[in-house]
Design a protein that fits this description.
The chain has about 80 residues and is mainly α. It has two helices and two strands.
């Protein structure tokens, strides 16, 4: 359950933030006319922030033992009532 919850948390969090990063990049290139050299300067942040956020939240939930069965999968959920 921990492995599935970790991957789900990392993927779901990093994916959404990475989409925002791509939209920022498109905005800078298309609307504001940034060239490839300027974009390369901030590219580490556009990719690094989503990965760091995804890993950070996934690791924190793993350390805090928050991954439990949640309906059809394992993710952040309260501990089941029938477990001891």
């Amino acid at each position: 359950c921990n492995a599935q919850g970790f991957i789900a948390q990392f993927g779901n969090t990093a994916d959404v933030i990475h989409m925002v990063s791509l939209q920022i990049q498109y905005l800078l290139v298309i609307k504001y006319g940034w060239n490839e050299k300027k974009v390369k300067g901030i590219e580490i942040f556009l990719h690094g922030i989503p990965i760091a956020n995804g890993l950070g939240t996934a690791i924190a939930a793993l350390v805090l033992k928050m991954y439990n069965p949640a309906d059809w999968d394992c993710w952040i959920h309260s501990y089941p009532h029938d477990c001891t």
